[in-house]
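Quick question about two entries, pasted in order.
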Amino acid sequence: MLLLLRQHIALKAINFLMSEDNVSKVISSDLHNLDISGTDINDYSEYYNGLFYEFYREGRESFYAIQDQTQDFLFYLKLAEEIGTSSSILELGCGNGRIAIRLSKLGFRVTGIDIARPMLEEARRNSNQIEWVEGDVRDFDLRRKFQLIMFPFDGLQHLLNIEDIEAGLACIRKHLEEGGKFIIDITNPTSKYLANILFENGRRLDSVFPNPNGQGTVVVTQTRQYDDANQILKLKKFFYFSESKEEVVKEVAFRVYFPKELELLLRANGFEIERRFGNYQGCDFKSDSPKLIFVVRKI
């Protein structure tokens, strides 16, 4: 009975949000006013398309009234300012430039690297003041060092095994100046977080937003499955396009890193933790903190 009630409520919410007027209300005017000329609108079904992802992110944050990807920038900015307003910054997994572009506008010398070409195409379209590099964080050589390297918003969790993270940490260490800082920002796998995944049944509503090509609404639902043996969280995202009645499925995998496990990996690969935070407000890390943020230096 409880499951049927939850499904009924979710269905009512989707039907309400699929109204064009209601979807428009939750998306910022900045996105409505975006110039999408030169963008491949036929590629919007791709989760890693930079413009499409921005609409997805905005819709998700508006629907759930969360501001993680707004608050994180202010957190990174504060740490960057501690080093100096003209400091050199490397952002790993820069995506469509959400963070890098804002830092650049404030005077920081920023380089962004990402493996997803559609994301970088959107980043380049939005700023030519940043060096955008298409590359793999596990194997890159920019032939220079940086005062600050950041891996924002769960990016590290895309490194799915020990070999991946050790290769990535080796590249990061090579590119970090002496005395420089490296910021890691991932989800803290609390017992509550993992229990929610374990007892989750069926799809849950993830995001609702207007299709960037102006044709109808996109409703995103997802399922989550946790592989205990390999510590892999598998997300399956279903993108439903109201205009064409088409549904596109994308799968995303994240490695779950536990606090002490990550600390040992950092130490074994030549890093020392300086500070630990549990959220973007700068609170100390605790067992029930939503985020696990380490500020580290190489040793």
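Here is the second entry:
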Amino acid sequence: MACAVGLGVARALAAAHEAGVLHRDVKSTNVGITRQDSVVLHDFGPARLAGESAITRTGVTMGTPQFMAPEVIMGAAPGPTADLYGLGVCLHFMLTGDLPFGPAAEVGAVVDSALGAGIRPLSTGLFPFTPVNLALLVDRLCAREASARPRTAAEAVLEWRAGRRRAPALVVRRGRVEVRIPADGAVDAEELRRIVAALGEDDGRTREPEGDDGTA
């Protein structure tokens, strides 16, 4: 699910950036899923054209601190990579269940963490069930330095697609039922319901991910 949501938001940002529009407030509450399982990016209220002066009072920064790129916190003009940082924080939150800098409402504490140690990489084993390809991409999106992130949303989309093609399947067995789950978790709603129903039939065991040729 995280992969599908991330890809959907990345596509929305790619379209916006292609039109020269920055969102400036990408966060979890601005991402929705329709009944048709389409991913929607909401609230372009703070959005502005790339290179355009922000329509705010002097000294006021637009955005939500938990999801705000470090360079924007320090006063730099936001660019496409700042929107991608917000996407990375959304996915980090979705995969771990916790905001990267904790539930603290104190803006100062969030800013200190963002500009200090930054977001803890998923690839360090923070959430071991996260597929490696997805963890590495989220880590890039959450990089403290803008230059370490994908340069554009379109580039992030390409990385997502490449990661999904390389990901091996996770084979799960319950009794006589065998289910193959893509390692990136990219399954639609109907397939997810089928998997849950199948795995609820009997106790079983989970095997290691298999390669493309079916070997462990």
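Reply: The beta strands are 21-22, 31-33, 39-41, 48-49, 169-174, 177-182, 204-206. The mean pLDDT is 76. Hope that helps.
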